[in-house]
Amino acid sequence: MTTFPWLTASRRPAWGWGAALLMALVFAAYAPVLRNGFVWDDDSSLTGNHFVQAPDGLRQFWFSTRTPDYWPVTETSFWLEWRLWGDRAAGYHATNLVLHALTAVLLWAALRRLQVPGAYLAAALFAVHPVNVESVAWIAERKNLLGLLFALCALLAFLRTEPARARPAAGSGKWLALSWLAFVLALLSKGSVAPWPLVLLGVIAWHRRPTAADLRRLAPFFGAAIALAAVDVWFQRHGTGEVIREAGLLTRALGAGAAVWFYLGKALWPAHLAFVYPQWEISPQRGLWWLPLLGALAVTGLLAAGGRPARPALFAWGYFGVMLIPVLGFSDVYFMRFSLVADHYQHLAIIGVIAFLAAAWAAWAARSAPLPPGCVAVAAVALLGVLCWRQCRIYRDRETLFRATLRENPGAWLAYTNLGALLTDTGRLQEAADDLRQALRLKPDLPQAELDLGTVLRSLGRRDEAMTHFQAGLRLSPESPGAHYDVGVGFADARRYPEAIAQLAEAIRLRPDYAAAETAWGNALRALGRGAEALPHFERALQLNPAQADAENNLGIALAQSGRLPEALAHLERAAQLQPGAVETESNVGIALAQTGRLAEAIVHFTRAVEAHPANVRLRFNLGNALAQSGRFSEAMAQYAEALRLDPAFSPAREMMRRLASGPPAPRP
Q1: What average pLDDT does range 225-234 have in this prediction?
Q2: Residue 356 and residue 315: Cα distance in Å, rounded?
Q3: How many angstroms from the chain centroid is the CA of residue 372?
Q4: Sign of the CA dihedral 203, 206, 208, 210?
């Protein structure tokens, strides 16, 4: 074959040019990713992760149990990059692309070292396969990329120990140590690489029958896998007491059988990919659920009995199944609450399918004229590249991702819930309410959706309806600090302050560092006329969250009511800095400044607030009062007149105009 030499085992390209082409394929197929933002849990993994931003974050990642998972290599990469990119998503996406490109190059090197025919084609197909988009375009899945990268490094170093020989070659000890170190780094990136020692054992078995010496060489690998897998399980159970699903061993085995075929289908025909697939309702009583498991066992048996001709297929099938073990549902991970299958779960396993297809293509190419096999290979890479490019675009931002999810899976309550929260943040309240109601229709026992819907309805002024949803959320999640907080705020809206205080106290009991609950408690006390008791709550809220504008504002008001104007003014000015242009904070600063005689500064704040909210009658009235006190009577009259134009029934403005017309200056605002 001469037309497409790089795609075969017999003709290999120069290493540098081959690697460069693979990297170019990755960057071409994944180009849209560089314009994408953050999606779903990128905030908890990165932008909202205190440990990533903390100076002592590395110590916490490596030597504490405070993080939800123990993947310190991945978290270290985020910690370092935060110092480079901050909250700019493009830098993290570029890093993911580089890692994926390097992985494709290492895969080519490993398959070539194993003398797998079509190694370069396999690497090219892996580089642009759309199933891998989820692992690359979703920043939080950096752990997949690092895990596979270090696992391939471990394989390449292990191959330098000459596993084809009955005895390892001299000097292979250092390569074995490097292989083990790379494998440990893979485990510390993501625990799903734990079955990799079985792959190394399979590499030996491909060449010869494993010996006791081989098992001794692999013992440290198995030991590290078992130890760190146990650590992963402990962290997941330690981080939350939530039960992902109740399922017996038989149900899990049937689900595992179905998952194997699901992943094989997506590897061979990557159509209708979704961020969240429909959740399976597995029933051992239904005979159809037995077919996938029995089929998988039958294929395994047939390949095992097929002798030497079936060995390539057996090893590819074996690798595929082994690397899926951690995600087949025998143990639960959090994402299985939404779906038992996910594209990023087969990032490691898909190599087995792709390598087998590439080897089969190479066998066909060896028996055929050059042109047809070469055209098929190039067409396959090009088609997958186009599909990959299109798939990258759905990860542009949160809203795009969840709307694309609903097109493929209209029953994805997770998508509706997240859309509701996103639309709430962007002020599209009615759309948010519609999506949250849809989420509750699909899954009525969602406490967070109930609470979020209550928050939306409260913002829409429908406080009675909001309170109904707050209480429903509390019934579903009685130990949730957020539920008690929302119910407390609902009681405060209804002026049922003693009941509000009881709920807010419970929220703080469940979560002692709940700054917003401290602020709300202080507000309730202030509304009851107990301003002195409110002060410690506002101060505690600011200790917990110094950037909380509401606490600064309310503490300033409470201090002003206590006659401590200089202290009050300091806190009110801080609130205005944290929340520039906000009506209440700007107005309160202006009032405090006027009360201390600093009228010129008060006028600046009132003017700023009026410019931001020109239809606010009370702001114009306060600005008019400050102008009148400064002797600028004509400007004051203009503000009073505009206030009356906006609200003819606003009698204080009419009264001030009458007083100014009769001569005496207006009182301070």
Answers
A1: 90
A2: 9
A3: 44
A4: positive
**Cα–Cα distance measured from residue 209 to residue 166, given in angstroms and rounded to the nearest whole number:** 9
Q: Tally Cβ neighbours within 10 Å of residue 564.
A: 15
Q: Which residues of 607-634 are buried (b: 16+ CB within 10 A; e: fewer)?
A: bbbbeebeebbbbbbbbbbbbbbbebbe
Six-digit token string for 299: 């294929």
**pLDDT higher than threshold 70 for residue 540:** yes
**How many H helices and E strands in the chain?**
33, 0
Listing DSSP states for 457-476 in one string gives HHHTT-HHHHHHHHHHHHHH
Q: Which of 422, 402, 415, 481 is nearest to 447 (CA)?
A: 481
What 8-state DSSP symbol labels residue 4? S
* Averaged pLDDT, 485-493: 93
pLDDT for 262 equals 98
Q: Give phi and psi for 203, each to the nearest 5.
A: -60, -45
pLDDT digits (tens, 9 = 90+) for 288-303: 999 999 999 999 999 9
Average pLDDT of the chain to the nearest whole number: 88
Would you state the pLDDT for residue 578?
Answer: 63
- Tally the residues of the chain: 669
Check: CB of residue 620 under 8 Å from CB of residue 646.
yes
- Distance between CA atoms of 400 and 324, rounded to whole angstroms? 29
Are the beta carbons of 647 and 615 closer than 8 angstroms? no
The rounded distance, in Å, linking the Cα atoms of 149 and 154 is 9
Query: Please, which residues have CB within 8 angstroms of residue 358's CB and are 6 or more apart in sequence?
Result: 116, 117, 118, 119, 121, 122, 125
For the entire predicted model, the pTM comes to 0.82
Using CB atoms within 10 A of its CB, is residue 649 exposed (0-12), middle (13-18) or buried (19+)? exposed
Dihedral sign for Cα atoms in the order 349, 351, 356, 360: positive
Quote the CA–CA distance of 266 and 217 in Å, as a whole number: 36
DSSP string of 602-613? Answer: HHHHHHHHHHH-
Segment (H or E) for 19: helix 15-29
- CA pair distance 49, 63, nearest whole angstrom: 17
Do residues 81 and 91 lie in contact, with contact meaning Cβ atoms separated by under 8 Å? yes
Measured distance CA(141)–CA(138) in Å, rounded: 6
Q: Which of 561, 533, 558, 555 is nearest to 542 (CA)?
A: 555
pLDDT in tens, 9-65: 444 557 788 899 999 999 999 999 999 999 988 888 888 888 898 899 899 999 988
Q: Are 453 and 472 in contact (CB under 8 A)?
A: no
Q: Which of 613, 560, 632, 567 is nearest to 591 (CA)?
A: 560
Three-state DSSP at 366 gives helix
Banded model confidence at residue 658, pLDDT cuts 50, 70, 90? confident
